[in-house]
Design a protein that fits this description.
With 286 residues, this protein is α/β, with parallel strands linked by helices. The protein is 35% helix and 16% strand. The protein has one domain: Alpha-Beta Barrel (TIM Barrel). The two termini are 19 Å apart.
C-alpha cells in the first residue's frame, strides 16, 4: 500500500523527491504585519529538512477585507515578495518544493479583524462570526478575480513552485460554489454553472498572468455537511466541469483537485470518519 510514497513524484513539470505533501495549515508563526519572518522560515525549513517533498504553506490573503485572523500571511502587495522569496529559497535549499495557498475569507471574518465590513456573494452572515457581509457587486467580483491573479504572480516572482486556490472550508471561493451562501441571480449565481463561474475566472486569470505551465492546485471540500450546502454529487460535477470549461484548460497534467473534509468532527467520532465519503467520491470520479 505504501510502496511508492518514497519514490519520486511529479505534478506536470513539478518534480518532487517523494510523495509526502505537507498540506496548508495555520502555524501562528507569521509576523503581525502579515510578512514572512525568521520564525516562520525556521518552522517550514524544519519540515522540509525532515523530508517533505512538497510543502503547501498556510493561507495567504489576497485582499485585506478577506483577512481571516490576526497575523495571517498577506500577499496583496509587492512589499511581501522579499519575505516570501527568502522562504522559498530556504525550502529549495533543503531539497523541497513550495506552493502557497491563496485565500479570501469572504463572510468568514469580522470587522474587528479587518477594519471594514466583510464581503460575500450574498448578504448572509456567517453563523459563527455573525457580521452582516456586503454583497459583492459584479465589478467588485471581477476586481477580486484580478487580485487572486496578482497574488499568484507575486508567488511566482518570489520563486514559488506553484499556488493553491483555497476553495474549501467555507471561505470566499467556496461561498460562491455553494447554494448555502450564494443566492445571486446574476452571472455568478443561480445554478451550479453560475456558481462555478467565479472559480473558473480565477483559474483563467492566474493562467493568463503566470503562464499555462505554472502549477495550480484547487482545494475543495467534498461535502459541506450543512443543510442546503454542497454535497458530494455537486463536488463530482465541479471536479469534472472545471477542467473542461476553463479556457487555457484547467486540468493540465501539473494540476489536481485536492479534496478535503468540509467540517471537523468532535473527538468522540469514530476513526476514519471521512473514509466512506472519500471512497464514494473516488468511485464517482473514476
Amino acid at each position: 500500500m505504501f510502496a511508492n510514497v518514497l519514490s519520486k513524484g511529479k505534478i506536470g513539470s513539478l518534480e518532487l523527491r517523494n510523495r509526502f505533501i505537507m498540506p496548508a495549515m495555520g502555524s501562528s508563526h507569521g509576523e503581525s504585519d502579515g510578512k514572512v519572518g525568521q520564525e516562520l522560515i525556521d518552522y517550514y525549513a524544519a519540515r522540509s529538512r525532515g523530508g517533505f517533498g512538497l510543502i503547501i504553506t498556510e493561507f495567504a490573503c489576497i485582499d485585506l477585507p478577506g483577512k481571516a485572523l490576526p497575523g495571517q500571511l498577506m500577499i496583496d502587495s509587492d512589499e511581501f515578495i522579499p519575505g516570501l522569496t527568502k522562504l522559498a529559497e530556504v525550502i529549495h535549499k533543503e531539497g523541497g518544493k513550495i506552493v502557497v495557498q491563496i485565500q479570501h475569507s469572504g463572510r468568514q471574518t469580522t470587522s474587528s479583524i479587518t477594519g471594514v465590513q466583510p464581503v460575500a456573494p450574498s448578504p448572509i452572515p456567517c453563523p459563527v462570526n455573525r457580521d452582516l457581509p456586503k454583497e459583492l457587486s459584479i465589478e467588485d467580483t471581477y476586481q477580486l478575480i484580478e487580485k487572486f491573479g496578482d497574488a499568484a504572480l507575486r508567488a511566482k516572482k518570489a520563486g514559488y513552485d506553484g499556488v493553491e486556490i483555497h476553495g474549501a472550508h467555507g471561505y470566499l471561493v467556496a461561498q460562491f460554489l455553494s447554494s448555502y451562501t450564494n443566492r445571486r441571480v446574476d452571472e455568478f449565481g443561480g445554478d451550479l454553472a453560475g456558481r462555478m463561474r467565479f472559480a473558473i475566472e480565477l483559474i483563467k486569470n492566474i493562467k493568463y498572468k503566470c503562464g499555462k505551465d505554472f502549477p495550480l492546485i484547487f482545494r475543495i471540500s467534498g461535502d459541506e455537511r450543512v443543510e442546503g450546502g454542497r454535497k458530494i454529487d455537486e463536488t463530482v460535477i465541479i471536479s469534472r466541469h472545471l477542467p473542461k470549461q476553463a479556457p487555457m484548460q484547467f486540468m493540465y497534467p501539473q494540476e489536481f483537485m485536492r479534496v478535503c473534509p468540509g467540517w471537523w468532527p468532535p473527538i468522540m467520532f469514530r476513526t476514519a470518519i471521512f473514509l466512506m465519503p472519500l471512497q464514494q467520491l473516488k468511485m464517482l470520479l473514476m
